[in-house]
Write a structure and sequence with these properties.
single chain; alpha/beta; TIM Barrel; eight-stranded parallel β-sheet; 10 helices; globular
Length: 210
């Protein structure tokens, strides 16, 4: 299962997707793959999440995870539909323990040293830094990460094409989560070409960071 984390680290960017319509799942997945970024974090913010995860996962050529996982039931539903990693906005010890006990990859959200120590105590080595820009951005991340050289981070929240490079340059950042290349406004008319274009640009940016 750690191979999934390694794959996320190789791609460096995790598209964060909120789908209102299940019918959008297949073409959006196709656009991401065409753009060279076969990764998706489908958030449980909408009723279409579980079925969308299933549709994307059944392709067999994508790393598909579930975001905004708040409960054990959601964790089970996500995995049952093909999610290979889970992400949550905060750190719920019950949910994390369930995932760890069942060999399910989960990266809960943290924003301070207390959260990091709780994550370490639960056996985690990778966490989400959220909401990245709102809580202080890269300066805060570097400050809170300094005492914990065993922990790596996936910053998410307010990250876009203009600031993703500076995050990726920090050696404790495995990948960044962002929605700028998969924003619903880009494909609400049914045209996914802009998603392909922005995804290709994001891939190029990630590849440029040593």
């Amino acid at each position: 299962m750690t191979n999934v984390i390694e794959q996320l680290a190789q791609h460096r960017i995790v598209p964060v997707i909120a789908l209102d319509k299940v019918s959008q799942a297949a073409p959006l997945a196709e656009a991401l793959v065409e753009g060279g970024l076969p990764v998706a974090e489908v958030t449980f913010r909408t009723a279409a999440a579980a079925e969308s995860i299933k549709i994307m996962a059944e392709r067999g050529d994508m790393i598909v995870g579930a975001g905004t996982v708040l409960t054990i039931d959601q964790a089970k539903e996500a995995v049952d539909n093909g999610a290979t990693f889970l992400i949550s906005p905060g750190i719920n010890p019950k949910v994390v323990k369930y995932c760890v006990d069942n060999n399910i990859i989960i990266t809960p959200g943290i924003s301070n040293p207390t959260d990091i120590e709780l994550a370490l105590d639960l056996g985690l080595k990778v966490v989400k830094f959220f909401p990245a820009e709102a809580v202080g951005g890269l300066p805060l991340l570097k400050a809170v990460a300094a005492p914990y050289n065993m922990m790596n981070f996936i910053p998410t929240g307010g990250i876009n094409a203009n600031n993703v490079t500076k995050y990726l340059e920090f050696d404790k950042v495995l990948a960044c989560g962002g929605s700028w290349m998969v924003a619903p406004s880009l494909y609400e008319a049914g045209d996914f070409s802009k998603v392909v274009e922005l995804t290709k640009e994001a891939v190029a940016v990630a590849a440029s960071v040593k």
